[in-house]
Design brief:
This protein is α+β, with helices and mostly antiparallel strands. Helices cover about 60% and strands about 10% of the residues. It has five domains: about 120 residues, Serine Threonine Protein Phosphatase 5, Tetratricopeptide repeat (Alpha Horseshoe); about 50 residues; about 70 residues, Tetratricopeptide repeat domain (Serine Threonine Protein Phosphatase 5, Tetratricopeptide repeat, Alpha Horseshoe); about 110 residues, no CATH class; about 45 residues, no CATH class.
Length: about 500
């Protein structure tokens, strides 16, 4: 059925003259042409090409859930790929930064991956969110011990146990810290408790082996590390521990096999590659040693130990030029790694004429350093005061590569007569194994401080690195270049025969 209006319209179309129809069609064509021309002009620059091309809108994609990254991290961990696990945990935190458990997991893995300073940061972040969490205190203990602060580690583990007396890792890490302080009796008792609470816990088994190792029971330690590998056979630090004990026994065959197993578990594990390269060097397999050390440096150009071993290899091949190049980098990055592991700047008030090698006065302020993922980036910390009746604030910057530091403070009152302020970089030590400290700090009358300085050489590289570098310079008749490294070696050990002989030769 047609509507009336439709029929009327149909009748009117039949009455339009042909000339008028052609005119209308022509006008429509001109209109289309004009519209297209204007559109083209608007979309072209004078030089050609679109000027106002619409921005393409990507198709919406779902944001990955943190759970997806956590699952990836756990799969990577059990596959032995700790670096991938760390990256996946970090991505999960980027999406949801309040996931407490991920800070604890990252702290543990970063510590085992030879980055205990970053592990410490993660543990602190976990405790900021849950100050009474036992697992967070336990991984803080682990990180402190691996940085080289066993007394602080003991305190953190005791705190963990006070919050959860049934946590096996807390006892395991405490035993490790005890043994590093030389308290063997407490270590043996504590590790026994850890085993009772977690006989199949891989960290408990590892630390039981470490207690045996530190007491000189290398065969027992190797057996215990192998028990830990039954629980998780892809953990590189367990294979490396077996290699370390094999070295102590002089069993080079077992050492090579252990470090090879470590590299097979994680082909990109830089410390494992460096240790394998060293053992191959010691057994005379120079080609394989060089290949592993070169790969380690390619993966991490800041890993000083790899440069040290490669420099020693070139020295033994009488390639003194390349030995010097690599040994200088070993010193540079080895010292930088020690500076990077600085945890705190502690400012104390000391007697003017009795500043000891260790802080003995009253603590007045402290800064805790944050450790960025970039190895060469400077450390930074906010200074906060602890003196009653004062409001000390400020900041400090510490360049790990050069050793230069600079600090600014407000509100530091003048020191009383016979007293001075001194800053201590904990746990950073000089070549003589003394804590590195600043020069005396003198505030202006208004309490403002601007101070800077240099740590100089610090411990880290082995004495062999310094005297081998000095010998390489001597053999190229460059004793003026050798002397600073001879002096550094003698600061580590004034009786070292190689350093003394090199100094005598240069004289």
């Amino acid at each position: 059925m047609y509507l009336k209006s439709d029929r009327d319209l149909y009748r009117r179309r039949r009455r339009i003259p042909w000339l008028r129809l052609l005119t209308l069609l022509a006008l429509v064509g001109v209109g289309v042409y004009v519209v297209n021309t204007v559109r083209d002009i608007m979309q072209e620059r004078p030089g050609g090409g679109p000027a106002y091309a619409p921005t393409p809108i990507p198709s919406p994609t779902p944001t990955p859930s943190p759970a997806i990254y956590v699952a990836r991290a756990e799969d990577a961990y059990w596959a032995g790929d700790v670096e991938t696990a760390i990256d996946a945990y970090q991505r999960a935190l980027d999406i949801e930064p309040n996931q407490f458990d991920l800070y604890v997991a990252l702290s543990r893995l970063l510590t085992f991956q030879s980055e205990p300073e970053r592990g410490l940061d993660m543990a602190r972040e976990a405790l900021r969110r849950q100050p009474e969490n036992a697992r967070a205190w336990a991984v803080l203990c682990l990180a402190y011990d691996w940085i080289g602060m066993p007394l602080e580690a003991v305190s953190a583990c005791q705190k963990a146990i006070s919050f959860d007396p049934t946590l096996p890792e807390a006892y395991a890490y405490l035993a490790e810290a005890y043994i590093d302080t030389g308290n063997w009796y407490a270590a043996n008792s504590t590790i026994a408790t850890a085993v009772e609470l977690g006989e199949n816990n891989v960290d408990v088994l590892r630390n039981r082996a470490y207690v045996l190792e530190t007491q000189g029971n290398y065969y027992g330690a190797i057996s215990a590390y192998r028990e830990a590998l039954v629980v998780h056979d892809k953990l590189v630090h367990l294979h490396m521990a077996i290699g370390r004990n094999a070295n102590a026994l002089g069993n080079w065959t077992l050492a090579v096999q252990a470090y090879t197993d470590a590299v097979e578990a994680d082909p990109n594990h830089v410390p494992a590659l460096a240790r394998l390269g060293l053992v191959l060097l010691l057994t005379g397999d120079y080609n394989k040693a060089e290949a592993n050390l070169t790969k380690a440096i390619k993966l991490d150009p800041t890993f000083g130990d790899a440069y040290a071993h490669l420099g020693t290899l070139y020295f033994q091949q009488r390639n003194y030029e390349d030995a010097i190049e690599n040994l200088k980098l070993a010193v540079r990055y080895g010292e930088a790694r020690s500076r990077r592991r600085t945890v705190s700047l502690v400012i104390t008030m000391e007697d003017t004429n009795a500043v000891d090698a260790e802080p003995g006065g009253t603590e007045v302020a402290r800064a805790e350093f944050a450790h960025p993922s970039d190895f060469e980036a400077p450390l930074r910390g906010m200074i906060a005061g602890h003196m009653v009746g004062t409001d000390i604030t400020g900041h400090v910057r510490f360049d790990v590569m050069s050793g230069r530091y600079a600090m600014e403070m407000e509100g530091l009152p003048p020191a009383p007569a016979g007293k001075i302020y001194v800053g201590w970089f904990l746990p950073l030590r000089s070549l003589e194994r003394q804590l590195v400290r600043t020069e005396a700090i003198f505030p202006a009358p208004n309490g403002r401080v601007q101070a800077s300085g240099d740590t100089g050489r610090v411990g880290g590289p082995t004495i062999e690195t310094y005297y081998t570098l000095a010998l390489s310079y001597y053999l190229l008749d460059q004793c003026s270049e050798a002397m600073p490294y001879i002096d550094a070696a003698l600061r580590i050990d004034p009786e070292d025969a190689n350093a003394l002989q090199t100094r005598q030769l240069c004289r």
